[in-house]
Structures are given as structure tokens and as C-alpha cells.
Amino acid sequence: MEIKEIQEEIIDEFSMFDDWMQRYEYMIELGKSLPLINEAYKTDDNIIKGCQSKVWVHAELENNKLVFTADSDAIITKGIIAILIRVFSNQKPQDILDADTQFIDEIGLKEHLSPTRANGLVSMIKQLKLYAVAYQTQIED
Amino acid sequence: MLDIKKIRADFPILKREVNGKPLVYLDNAATSQTPQQVIDAIVDYYQNYNANIHRGVHTLSQEATDKYEQARNKIQKHFNAAKSHEIIFTSGTTHSINLVANGFSALIKKGDEILVSAMEHHSNIVPWQMLCERTGAILKVIPMNLEGELRMDVYDELLSDKTKLVFCNHISNALGTINPIEEIIEKAHKVGAAVLIDGAQAAPHLVADVQELDVDFYTCSAHKICGPTGVGMLYGKEEWLNKLPPYQGGGEMIAEVTFEKTTYAGLPHKFEAGTPNICGGIAFGAALDYMNAIDFEEIAKYEHELLEYATQELLKIDGLKIYGTAKNKTSVISFNIEGIHPYDMGSILDKLGIAVRTGHHCAQPIMDFYKIPGTVRASFAFYNTREEVDVLIAGVLKAKSMLL
């Protein structure tokens, strides 16, 4: 599926929730079910330092598509990571670079993108895009 | 007895809602809320006598100067400084500490020792590390025990004739511990060291008498005592302030300027380069008036009751651990629930309208000491209520049921 389609699917899913509590409960569930990152990749090199919660991201190129795995020590952050991975993993680097993150706003999680949240999420999106830039050049080479 | 209902009516912000719930503001150790009396002082300044101070001959400038200097006198009286020019207006505690640390660069030499407590805010660690890098002085740490109390036995061992400076907070922002600063100051003076006490967390809860303490430097920020942000004060003994070179150059801080040589103004202007936060200084004075009218002894008594009640209720929650259990502490409770990241707890409490601080509270060494990523910190002010403590407890239980 293309990034845009996945985003719309997620927006659809979230539109079923009536209030923040259901949204959060869903995110916590997503966080708990996120496949664990290979412990070998949970290194300081792969850490994205937010102010409060730690986020680890690992990227690998498979058949010209980027596959991300990630983890966090905070469960709500992990839930958001699960959503981001669903959107951006298994996509071509150029498509990742072209994609926007407007859908996060639309599913009512805008506050997690505010810099004051300091949860590493903004840095995480930036990091996913940086990986895409790096691997894009590899493909071109 | 405090009339809490009447006091709460002074704070317009306490009427607002957050995420559709009545605001329960428990982040007072970071910033206190502002009463109408202080807001009025700010408005009055901009509506009636906004002008630059100390240099204009016109009426507005003279009025602004008078009010600004009156505020300095209020601060002097509040902290019982011997002279008003021993009170320097700064942008806050961080600025004050940097001013002193920078000044000591000229007085410290290689091999001198600086002692700092293990429970300092980053603002009372980093400037001294920078000073040590510049001068070759050595930074040594006074450790703490598991309860969050300073190891005074180790302090005794660390003190020597090499010790030139001792820095410690009066009250820890992350743990609420009230440190035995009288003893710290007296012992430091015996070996000839100067002492700076960071009073940022103490000023909202108690009144420090700088002469009785015989402290060399004492500092605090207005925004933690119902004043505005971006203004604070540094008290320094006159003899020390005269020894320290100016921190920043600019207008206001000079006596005479030619391209060959500049001579500096006397105290306090030597340390107040440029146009200061005039309105902020005046509002700082208004905030002290407000707090003193309520009475600090009554405030301390009431906050202690809130602390005891909140501690007792929180400890009933299974898996909850409080960090900082000193016998002598203020109304700050740092806690975690086993298996829950403080960030998750804080996010859900926010959804319930409850403002707490989460994270390392700019005191990473303390978090490293306890081997935790951070804590949830609820800090109470005199305008908080027992009912708000109940809302916090219900919120923590709700978050726990969602997260575990």
C-alpha cells in the first residue's frame, strides 16, 4: 500500500473513537503489540534523544525499500512509533521523503508533535527522513 | 488560618479549564501562578509610567526609577540584606549563578577546590564546571543518601584550605529536601571558603535572613514566588560584590567611558548593564508584598499539611515509590509507579486537567543516583487544596489502570 493510503486507513480507524481515552487506550495497545526491535540494534548509536523518553530506531534496506524497527521506554511514545512504522516502513526512500505527517494532526495526536512534548517524536520523524536520504543515495549509486 | 477560597479568587488562571476539566495546577516548583495584584502592577506600569530608568530627567522616567528602586528596597527588606545595593536585579537564578561563577574566574586559580552538592539543578552545576575548565580548579561533589539528604560527614572530609567556594541549593527542586545550609555556611567559612546558596525553591516557602545566615551569595527567581518570569535577584555581601569584576559591559554599568578607558559604576549598577526588566522588577516587589500579606509562616504550615496528606494518600497506591523522603522537606513529591514511564503518567494526567512535571527536572545526576529515567513531580502551593490532592490521586489511579 502507498503511504497516503495507509494514512487514510489510520484516520478511518481513529474516527471511530469518541474521546481521548479511547484513542489513548488504542495507542497503548499498539505500543504493547509493537514487535520488539532486535536487542542488538538497541545501541546508543541508534538512540534518538528526546528530553523525556528514549526512542531507538534501526533501518535496513530490503529490495530497495526501507524497513524500520523501533522501540521506546515510554508506552504512549511506543504507540505512536507503531503508527509511524506502519506508515513509513516497507516504503521506497523517495516516497518517505515526499510524505507529510499531517495525518497525526487528523487523528487527534497533534500535541505529541509539539516541541514542548519533548518525547522524541519530532526527532524520530526527522530521523526516518534522514535514513531515507541516506539510503536514497545508496540506491542511486 | 489561610482563607484558601479567598486566596484562589486572586488567581484568574485557576478558573480555567484544561482539556475540558478544571485545571489542577501542581507544577508550582517550576513556575507559580500570578495573582491579580501582581498582574495589576504589570498593567499599571505599562499604562501609566513606562519609561527608561536612572537616566531620564522627565517625570515618567523618575516615577519608573522610584518604583524600581522601591522594589529593590522591598527585596532588601524581605531578605534582610544590610544594604539595598547588595541586591542585584538579574534575569533569574541561572543568570545570578553565572554572574558569580564568571566573576570568580578572576579569583580562582589552578588546584583550588569548589564543592557542589549532589542534588543540584543543572544551573548550579554547569556554570561551575565551566569555571573549572577556565581556571583549572577542581569540582568536588557532596554526596547524598537514599533518602535524599546530604552526607554532612563527607562534607566535613571534603572541606580543606584548598576549598574556595561551596554551592548548594537551599531546597532541592527534584526532591524537596531542605538542606542544612546554616551548618554548610558555618563550616565553609571556617576554612575561608565563600558560599552561594541557590534559593530558587526556598523563596516560595520560607524567608531566608541573609545576615543571620551570614551567607555570601543568595539568589532566587521571581516566577516561583508569584512574580513574573525573566526576573530574579542576587544578594551578595558588599565586600564580595566589590571584589567581583563586572559580568557584562554596556550602558548603566559605567561611570565614565572613553575609548582609552572605562571606569565602572558602583554597586548595584556595576552588575546591571543595559536596560533592565523594569516592569518585572516592580512586579517582583508586588509579588513579595502579596506573599508577605498572606504570611509565610501560615503558608509553610498549610503547605506542610498538604504535603503530609498527599504523601499519605499516594503511598496507598500499590507499586508507588516516592523519591526524596528527607525528614525536612517542602511540598514537593517526586514519584514513580513500578512499570510506568513518567512521561506516560504525565501525558494522561494532562488529559485529566492535572499539570505535573515529568522528566529529570534538570537534575540528571539525581536520576542517575536512583537509576531512573525521571519522575513525576507534584509540587504544591498555598493556593492548592485537599480536593485537588484527591483529583491527583484519582488521576494517578486512572492512568495506572490504563497503562499497566
From TrEMBL, chain A:
Residues 12-129 form the Fe-S metabolism associated domain. It holds the Pfam family SufE. It comes from the Bacteria. InterPro entries: Fe-S_metab-assoc_dom. Gene3D superfamilies: 3.90.1010.10. Belongs to the SufE family. This is Cysteine desulfuration protein SufE. It comes from Maribacter orientalis. The lineage of its organism: Bacteria, Pseudomonadati, Bacteroidota, Flavobacteriia, Flavobacteriales.
TrEMBL record, chain B:
PANTHER family: CYSTEINE DESULFURASE (PTHR43586), CYSTEINE DESULFURASE 1, CHLOROPLASTIC (PTHR43586:SF8). This is Cysteine desulfurase. Residues 24-392 form the Aminotransferase class V domain. Gene3D superfamilies: Aspartate Aminotransferase, domain 1 (3.90.1150.10), Type I PLP-dependent aspartate aminotransferase-like (Major domain) (3.40.640.10). One of its GO terms (molecular function) is cysteine desulfurase activity. It is an enzyme of class 2 (transferase). PROSITE patterns: AA_TRANSFER_CLASS_5. Signal peptide: none annotated. One of its GO terms (biological process) is cysteine metabolic process. It comes from Maribacter orientalis. It catalyses: (sulfur carrier)-H + L-cysteine = (sulfur carrier)-SH + L-alanine. Its cofactor is pyridoxal 5'-phosphate. Belongs to the class-V pyridoxal-phosphate-dependent aminotransferase family. Csd subfamily. It comes from the Bacteria. Its EC number is 2.8.1.7. Keywords: Pyridoxal phosphate, Transferase. Pfam families: Aminotran_5. SUPFAM superfamilies: PLP-dependent transferases. Catalyzes the removal of elemental sulfur and selenium atoms from L-cysteine, L-cystine, L-selenocysteine, and L-selenocystine to produce L-alanine.
